[in-house]
């Protein structure tokens, strides 16, 4: 009994009839085909069978529409004649795709999703290229089973067979072993899910039915009119997505997104306010300040924000008018400082000024005395010295020439200073400056022989009784 009963399929055998296939092996290949027919349910509405054999040329022994009975197919195989020529495998594949599987030759329309299966049996290396034409054949929706006998290059078989190779590529040592393959193919063609046998072309899911298969789409997609591909549904419009801010469709599903200024929480639904300034790409030269939905840039004190809203330009702090400097305001890099006029120093409050004691500075250079003035200072020398032209050093001078020596009568210069002296008839008082009048007769040089008598301004000589003063006014 046929295990493929009721299963629709368009099956074309491609038989290598080259001279390398010996007559005895050619007959064994026919036996392989007889065995394959035993489990197929032959008929116009179930399995249709076609056969092509090739050598240097391609012979279409019978097409998919030729026979509806298994006995007629077996008779055609028995009468098939060995070509015994070259091995143009690529040419045979091209003929199969372009001719054997056309609706004119009996293949059912593609939209009916009836599996199209080609089974090629070969024992040699092709004399033409097969890679490209085999790929085009598979891409047209034809599943290729490649059977190699003897010393066939396995890579050639893989170039022809469909993927996965373990289900579609077979290599046996000789034609005697090929007789064992029908049982294997029976399970692959009859027992297997149609979706696993055919190149169904479904973008998402292939679902087998009793006679064919249909394509379906995953959740969130709808099947397109071509009945193969799928388009994403607008899940945000049809589902209670639960997104706090925005719902965005993605292939087969949706994601929640947040408005600018917010970030998605771990529940992937709700949103929290974002710190724009923490992102690092705000571009603010000085400060970044978050706002409700974005951020603004601000500048350090002493700078103003430029029209670009990001960079800052230096501000004239002193022009602001609130600097509080008593004398001068001077702009600095980030702010301002107060300075004082010459002759003043800045107080610890950094704003007010106090008069400067220039002489307290070690730079005045005065040799004797330093005297502060309104805006500066000058040097002065001790008594007995005068200032040199350098206005700093002093040199010694006559002290008596100074108006302040204080001597009442005479001033006499000494080595390092001066002394006061008194006129004749006077003596110097203990203060060393003033003089007191003395009696002239007290002086040892008055010259009177007898008596000396003081007068207002001098003295006169007199004689003792019995003597008269000589004309010299001294002797008697």
From TrEMBL:
<dbReference type="InterPro" id="IPR009030">
    <property type="entry name" value="Growth_fac_rcpt_cys_sf"/>
</dbReference>
<keyword id="KW-0964">Secreted</keyword>
<dbReference type="InterPro" id="IPR000742">
    <property type="entry name" value="EGF"/>
</dbReference>
<dbReference type="InterPro" id="IPR002035">
    <property type="entry name" value="VWF_A"/>
</dbReference>
<dbReference type="Pfam" id="PF14670">
    <property type="entry name" value="FXa_inhibition"/>
</dbReference>
<keyword id="KW-0175">Coiled coil</keyword>
<keyword id="KW-1015">Disulfide bond</keyword>
<dbReference type="Pfam" id="PF00092">
    <property type="entry name" value="VWA"/>
</dbReference>
<keyword id="KW-0245">EGF-like domain</keyword>
<dbReference type="InterPro" id="IPR036465">
    <property type="entry name" value="vWFA_dom_sf"/>
</dbReference>
<keyword id="KW-0325">Glycoprotein</keyword>
<feature type="domain" description="EGF-like">
    <location>
        <begin position="273"/>
        <end position="313"/>
    </location>
</feature>
<dbReference type="GO" id="GO:0005576">
    <property type="term" value="C:extracellular region"/>
</dbReference>
<dbReference type="InterPro" id="IPR052080">
    <property type="entry name" value="vWF_C/EGF_Fibrillin"/>
</dbReference>
<protein>
    <recommendedName>
        <fullName>Matrilin 2</fullName>
    </recommendedName>
</protein>
<keyword id="KW-0732">Signal</keyword>
<keyword id="KW-0677">Repeat</keyword>
<dbReference type="InterPro" id="IPR001881">
    <property type="entry name" value="EGF-like_Ca-bd_dom"/>
</dbReference>
<dbReference type="InterPro" id="IPR000152">
    <property type="entry name" value="EGF-type_Asp/Asn_hydroxyl_site"/>
</dbReference>
<feature type="domain" description="VWFA">
    <location>
        <begin position="10"/>
        <end position="189"/>
    </location>
</feature>
<dbReference type="GO" id="GO:0005509">
    <property type="term" value="F:calcium ion binding"/>
</dbReference>
């Amino acid at each position: 009994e046929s295990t493929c009963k009721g299963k629709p399929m368009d099956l074309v055998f491609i038989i290598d009839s080259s001279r390398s296939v010996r007559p005895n092996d050619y007959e064994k290949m026919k036996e392989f085909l007889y065995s394959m027919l035993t489990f197929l349910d032959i008929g116009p509405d179930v399995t249709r069978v076609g056969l092509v054999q090739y050598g240097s040329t391609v012979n279409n022994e019978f097409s998919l529409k030729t026979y509806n009975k298994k006995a007629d197919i077996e008779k055609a195989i028995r009468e098939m004649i060995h070509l015994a020529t070259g091995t143009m495998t690529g040419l045979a594949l091209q003929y199969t795709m372009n001719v054997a599987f056309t609706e004119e030759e009996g293949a059912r329309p593609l939209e009916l999703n009836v599996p199209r299966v080609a089974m090629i049996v070969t024992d040699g290396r092709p004399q033409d290229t097969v890679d490209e034409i085999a790929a085009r054949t598979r891409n047209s929706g034809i599943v290729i089973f490649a059977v190699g006998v003897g010393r066939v290059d396995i890579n050639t078989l893989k170039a022809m067979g469909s993927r996965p190779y373990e289900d579609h590529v077979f290599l046996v040592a000789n034609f005697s072993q090929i007789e064992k393959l029908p049982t294997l193919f029976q399970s692959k063609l009859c027992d297997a899910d149609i979706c696993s046998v055919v190149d169904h072309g479904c973008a998402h899911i292939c679902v087998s039915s009793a006679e064919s298969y249909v394509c379906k789409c995953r959740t969130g997609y709808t099947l397109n009119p071509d009945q193969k591909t799928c388009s994403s549904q607008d899940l945000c419009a049809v589902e209670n997505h639960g997104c706090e801010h925005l719902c965005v469709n993605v292939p087969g599903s949706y994601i929640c997104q947040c408005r600018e200024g917010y970030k998605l929480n771990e529940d992937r639904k709700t949103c929290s306010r974002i710190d724009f300034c923490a992102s690092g790409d705000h571009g603010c030269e000085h400060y970044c300040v978050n706002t409700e939905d974005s951020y603004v840039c601000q500048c350090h004190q002493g700078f103003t924000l430029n029209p670009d809203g990001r960079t800052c330009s230096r501000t004239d702090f002193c022009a602001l008018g609130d600097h509080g400097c008593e004398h001068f305001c001077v702009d600095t890099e980030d702010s301002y400082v107060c300075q004082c006029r010459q002759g003043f120093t800045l107080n610890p409050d950094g704003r007010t000024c106090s008069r400067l004691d220039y002489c307290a500075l070690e730079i005045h250079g005065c040799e004797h005395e330093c005297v502060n003035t309104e805006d500066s200072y000058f040097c002065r020398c001790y008594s007995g010295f005068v200032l040199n032209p350098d206005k700093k050093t002093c040199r010694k001078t006559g002290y008596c020439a100074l108006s302040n020596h204080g001597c009442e009568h005479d001033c006499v210069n000494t080595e390092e200073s001066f002394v006061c002296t008194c006129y004749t008839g006077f003596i110097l008082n203990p203060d060393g400056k003033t003089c007191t009048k003395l009696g002239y007769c007290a002086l040892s040089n008055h010259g009177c022989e007898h008596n000396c008598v003081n007068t207002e301004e001098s003295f006169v000589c007199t004689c003792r009784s019995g003597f008269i003063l000589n004309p010299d006014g001294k002797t008697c």
